[in-house]
């Protein structure tokens, strides 16, 4: 039996480090690495079932071409050469008739890894296709973080253990960020207070004080918190003076909404 080290391909924050046990060219067991600070030796229920996915009889292993109407579920197997010819002819036809910008490169990095992600970009750049600004998924959040901190990089997951207060706003971390959830539990054990802001009761909402705003009203809650901080002089005025702009307008804005 040999060990193969890998990374979980699912598109979540954890990016778990895996140990894959292989015997006679077949995967027989998958574990999370114990020495990895985030994975901590355990996997979520989805990753733990990778062997079932890999060897499932329903797994699509070859190109399939639809032969019936869309939605009928009728397909036939074709060769890789046929599939590549179908795709290339379609691309060439669109470019001839409408121009290359009629093709949109719509994607997200997901589980591609750096090499696979940038490789596809080269192809779409060559043909002159239209593109999007990386993703429509989290660009707004990245811009907000950059406006606050200068860059859109987040904190290290391990820093959760140093926190005195943790706010889980609109995230069911127990399902979508399991290892971050585990770190939050450890931080709570160390004395951290946890607040969960979510209109829905979830597994995550049980680990701290659960605030349930009406759907769509969380922006008002955020502005209310900002107003409370300002009115009670709980902010770093020296930092505000040196590193921000527009604070006085913001101050008046939240006051008028209170």
Could you explain the architecture of this structure?
The structure is a single chain. This protein is an alpha/beta fold. 38% of the residues lie in helices and 17% in strands. The protein is built from 9 helices and 10 strands. Strand 6, helix 3 (113-127) and strand 7 form a beta-alpha-beta unit. Helix 7 (218-231) crosses helix 9. The longest helix has 19 residues, at 80-98.
What percent of residues are in strands? 15-25%
The CATH superfamily of the largest domain is Dimethylsulfoxide Reductase, domain 2
Q: End-to-end span in angstroms? A: 65 Å
Q: What is the helix fraction of residues, given as a range?
A: 25-40%
Order of strands in the sheet with the most strands?
1-2-3
Q: What is the class of the largest domain in the CATH system?
A: Alpha Beta
- pLDDT averaged over residues: 90
Kindly provide the radius of gyration, computed on alpha-carbon positions and rounded to a whole number of angstroms: 24 Å
Question: Segments where pLDDT lies below 50 for 5+ residues?
Answer: none
In the CATH hierarchy, what is the architecture of the largest domain at level 2?
A: 3-Layer(aba) Sandwich
Please write the string of helix (H) and strand (E) elements.
EEEHEEHEHEHEHHEEHHH
How would you characterize the largest beta sheet? 3 strands, antiparallel
Which characteristics define this entry?
alpha/beta, 258 residues, Phosphorylase Kinase, domain 1
Quick recap:
With 258 residues, this protein is of the alpha/beta class.
């Amino acid at each position: 039996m040999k060990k193969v080290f890998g990374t979980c391909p699912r598109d979540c924050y954890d990016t778990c480090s895996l140990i894959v046990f292989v015997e006679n060219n077949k995967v027989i067991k998958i574990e999370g690495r114990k020495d990895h600070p985030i994975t901590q030796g355990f996997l979520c229920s989805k990753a733990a079932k990778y062997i079932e996915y890999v060897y499932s009889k329903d797994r699509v292993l070859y190109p399939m071409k639809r032969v019936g109407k869309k939605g009928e579920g009728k397909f036939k197997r074709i060769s890789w050469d046929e599939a590549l010819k179908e795709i290339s002819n379609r691309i060439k036809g669109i470019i001839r008739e409408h121009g290359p910008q009629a093709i949109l490169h719509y994607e997200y990095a997901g589980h591609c890894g750096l090499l696979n992600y940038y490789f596809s970009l080269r192809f779409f750049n060559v043909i002159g296709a239209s593109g999007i600004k990386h993703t429509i998924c989290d660009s707004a959040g990245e811009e907000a973080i950059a406006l606050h901190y200068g860059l859109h990089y987040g904190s290290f997951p391990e820093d959760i253990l140093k926190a005195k207060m943790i706010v889980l706003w609109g995230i069911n971390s127990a399902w979508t960020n399991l290892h971050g959830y585990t770190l939050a539990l450890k931080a709570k054990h160390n004395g951290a207070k946890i607040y969960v802001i979510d209109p829905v009761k979830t597994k995550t909402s049980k680990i701290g004080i659960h605030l349930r705003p009406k759907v769509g009203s969380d922006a008002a809650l955020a502005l209310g918190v900002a107003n409370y901080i300002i009115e009670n002089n709980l902010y770093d005025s020296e930092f505000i003076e040196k590193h921000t702009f527009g604070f006085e307008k913001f101050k008046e804005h939240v006051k008028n909404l209170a």
